[in-house]
Prior knowledge:
This protein is of the alpha+beta class. The chain has helices at 52-66, 82-93; strands at residues 2-13, 28-39, 100-107, 112-117. The chain starts with a strand and ends with a strand.
Amino acid sequence: xxxxxxxxxxxAHYLADxxxxxxxxxxxxxxFTLEVAIDGEPDPETGWVVDLGDVAEALAELRxxxxxxxxxxxxxxxxxxxxxxxxxxxxxxxxxxPGLARVRVARPSCGEACEYEL
Length: 118
Ligand SMILES: Nc1nc2c(c(=O)[nH]1)N=C([C@H](O)[C@H](O)COP(=O)(O)OP(=O)(O)OP(=O)(O)O)CN2
Ligand SMILES: [Zn+2]
């Protein structure tokens, strides 16, 4: 089975060194959604794959590191693309949730998303 939980966050970023001086080379902001999927067999006693309360706790920590920040300054994130935000989240959640199967980061207002299948 697969359980899914998501958060939203708002953050600023810029993508320097773009070809043709694209507008996103300048600092601007987005609302992001970040969704994780965790696979596993439900425990026969608890009836859950993992406690969604634990997932909520881990996602709140992750959100704290991203929300209302300049993503270019977030340590360990690298160039703030959707791809690197997915990787950043996966690196922080993997050890705690070995069944982590997918991280999806989207910018709904732009119709853009990256899906990282682990
Ligand atoms: N492979 C990727 N390509 C691009 C990424 C990315 O994360 N991965 N990111 C960008 C820009 O950051 C992104 O497209 C946003 O650019 P922006 O100009 O801000 O987008 P919009 O104008 O469409 O969005 P608004 O919210 O309306 O400003 C580019 N490529
Ligand atoms: Zn952008």
